[in-house]
Amino acid sequence: MAGKSRRALPDLKVRIGISLAVAICVFLLTFYRVFSVWDLPFSDRVYQSPSVSVLPITIVRIDEATIAEYGQPSQWSRSVYADLINTLNSGEKRPAVIAFDIMFSGYKDEAGDTAFAEAAARYGNVVAGSSASFSEHGNGRERVRSMSDLVHVDSVSFPYKELNDAVTVGIVDCVTDQYDFVTTAVTGLSHDGQWNDCFAVAVLKKFRTYLDEHPEYAAYHPEYASFKVPDYSGTNINRRRFSYTCAPGDFDSVSLKDILNGSRDASSFANRILVVGAYAPGLQDDFRITFESKVGSSKMYGVEIHANIMEAVFGDLFQTDAPRVLLAVIYGAVSGLVCFALFYLGIVKGLLLCLGVTAAHIISSIVLYRHGIYVMLLYMTFAGVMLMIGTVVYHYTAARAERQKINKAFRMYVAPEIVDEVAGSGTYELQLGGRHKDIAVLFVDIRGFTTMSENLAPEEVVDILNEYFGVITDAIFKNKGTLDKFIGDAAMAVFNSPFDLDDYVYRAVMTACDIAKASDALGEKLMERFGKKVSYGIGVNCGEATIGNIGSSFRMDYTAIGDTVNTAARLESNAKAGEILISEEVKKRLEGRIETEDVGEIPLKGKSHKIFVYRVKL
């Protein structure tokens, strides 16, 4: 995922391994449908887009107002339904279909049963409900290969004989899936060699008959005139995923009470499909659906579900699930390829790639959905989101590792304190400029190095330099100084820069003493190895100097400049082998804390007047 910064990429085998692991994980998640309980609501919230009903459907609600007026439906005489049929068919203009999403099995009271059956037979536009009894996994197979393996029809119950002879019947059962959602419609089923239409198909067949008998109405509605009810009798059980047209409460509706008491003119229902059914929570005929309505309801009454199935049959709004294996392979392959590509992209391009793939997946899935193919949305969307999160995490950790690598590399050349100050800003953006500050400066140089190097191999010279510089660096860091730079066989250190340091002048002198003591021991060691012994010269000064980034915009050095620094360098150049020279200012600040010897006034190169110099006694 490296961008223009050419960040070091993981090994090719690692990149391929990670991408392959991502592909396998997405494949397994999709194939085994691990997230199905969340996928259905997620997918349907994207796919389902409730609109206006195309069919002339009106829901006749057995609602709380009706119950308050007539009591519980279980206590009604069936003459109530006879009165409803007679009232609706009383005028010249009659409903196309009156469909009861109610089971009328068995006899109740003779007068009411007879009146209901006679009214239904008199007008011929009534559909009633039948009910099927199902058992899951009813065929006894170990593996479920089809819907008929999962659901078996044990029996079908019909209305009492007189009503059954007078009406068209259809299966009214709303079959829920394993997560208790109504996402599929049983368009019909076969039992004992006889095909049984579902309630919605039975209603539409009755509506088709009405259109054929009333060509004048069909002429004004060509969308109805050309409609033919599909034949679903080709399979044992015809269970299909369907799209909802209307959300809960969106269908045209009327309370049954208002029709019976005359509050609503029966002629207003001419040519319409009236679906009568429970519309109150206490009647326990509501079901979970996978999307919410405008009012936030995630349940729908059975009559509304049947009305939606009618719309689905009319508009062929059914979908076939995309093959699970094919989806798993596609999702896995795309996820793996995207993951591999992300290693070569910066964070912005990586996020855009993930977002683009996810958006393309959703858009193409919506197109397929509208063409009758149901694609599970959550898995590839989940993979896209995880890859986006992974992109951010990868770049964060890679940038952090890169920064630590830079810090480590800088510490090989720059004092750790300077690296920490630059890194602490979090930007690594250096700017030219400096500030005045009182500091102590130490210069140290190897005496006799040039003569020695003429008689040694280059490798031996480098070894000696590294040994001496190791001693110098350890002494500077021990006393919390800042190693400013190496200058050939010399080194410069500052104290009280870049951060404030207590007793920094004393620390500078102590650093010189530590170098001197360690150098004596090192000199003896080198004498044994190379037959050569070198020494040192050290100068220490203190005072005000300018510290900061000095140089140009493309090459700069964090250092100290000024007369204080120049004087320290001149003191070092005048120091003899094994000698530590300090200025009078250093002597004055450390009076009584160090032992010194007077060297006297000496001229310093670049100085117009001599300065008094002291030698530190070890």
Account of the 3D structure:
- It is a single chain.
- With 618 residues, the chain is of the alpha/beta class.
- It has 3 domains: 12-32 and 335-407; 54-319, no CATH class; 430-616, 2-Layer Sandwich (Alpha-Beta Plaits), CATH 3.30.70.1230.
- Helices cover 44% and strands 23% of the residues.
- It is built from 21 helices and 22 strands.
- The strands form 4 sheets. Strands 15, 16, 17, 18, 19, 20, 21 and 22 form an 8-stranded mixed beta sheet that branches. Strands 1, 2, 3, 4, 5, 9 and 10 form a 7-stranded mixed beta sheet that branches.
- A hairpin with a 2-residue loop joins strand 16 (482-487) and strand 17 (490-495).
- Helix 1 runs antiparallel to helix 13, helix 4 packs parallel to helix 5 and helix 18 packs antiparallel against helix 19.
- The two termini are 58 Å apart.
- The relative contact order is 0.10.
- Residues 1-6, 138-150 and 427-431 have low confidence and may be disordered.
